[in-house]
Amino acid sequence: MSVKVTVVHGDILEQDVEAIVNSWNRNIIPWWLLLPQGVSGAIKRKAGTNPFKEVAKYGAIPLGEARFTSAGELNFKGIIHVAGINLCWFATEYSISQSVKNALNLAQQHGFKEIAMPLIGAGSGNRSADWCFQCIMKTLKDIDSPVAVRVVKYVSTR
C-alpha cells in the first residue's frame, strides 16, 4: 500500500488530521532562546510552550529524525517535530527526505491515520518552497505507509 498524499493550500493548524509535523531544528539551542518563525511560530502562539518544553527534554536530535510531543492547546493528538535543518540552518535533500520518512514512521507507531506536513526546509531552512515541495513529493512516492499525508503547500502563520 503506497502512502496517500493530498496537497492542500491553507493553514496547517486548521487541518482536520490527528497530528501535525513541525519543521524544527537539531534541538541543540534551547527553544526559549529562539524566536520561532513560520510553522513553529504559529504553533507556539496557538499551542503554548508545552510542546517546546517537551521536545527540549529529548536533547539533541540527529538530522532528519523525529520526536513526538503533546499538541499543547491545539486540537490534535500530538505534534511530530522533525530535525529538518542542519546546524548551519540549511535544509538538504537528505534532511528533508529523512524527516519525511521518520515523521511517517512515528505517526504509524502512534496509530495515526492522517497527518499534515508543512514544506520542511522552506523558511528557516533557506530553501525555496518549490524545491522543498519537490523533495517531499519525491520521498513520498517511494514510501508504503497506511498513514495519509496532507502536504500543506502554503502555510498561514496567523
The CATH architecture can be given as: 3-Layer(aba) Sandwich
Beta-strand content bin: 15-25%
Structural class, from helix and strand content? Answer: alpha/beta
User: What's the CATH class, please?
Assistant: Alpha Beta
Name the average pLDDT. 90
Number of helices: 4
Number of strands: 6
Protein name: Macro domain-containing protein
Organism: Pseudoalteromonas obscura
Pfam families: Macro
Domain Macro: 1-158
Describe this structure in words.
It is a single chain. The chain is of the alpha/beta class. The protein has a single domain (5-154), classed as 3-Layer(aba) Sandwich (Leucine Aminopeptidase, subunit E, domain 1), CATH 3.40.220. The protein is built from four helices and six strands, in the order ββααββαβαβ. It has helices spanning 38-47, 50-56, 93-109, 129-140, and strands at residues 5-9, 19-24, 66-69, 78-83, 114-117, 148-154. β5, α4 and β6 (148-154) form a beta-alpha-beta unit. α3 (93-109) packs across α4 (129-140). The longest helix is centred in the middle third of the chain and has 17 residues, at 93-109. The mean pLDDT is 90. Residues 1-158 form the Macro domain. It holds the Pfam family Macro. This is Macro domain-containing protein.
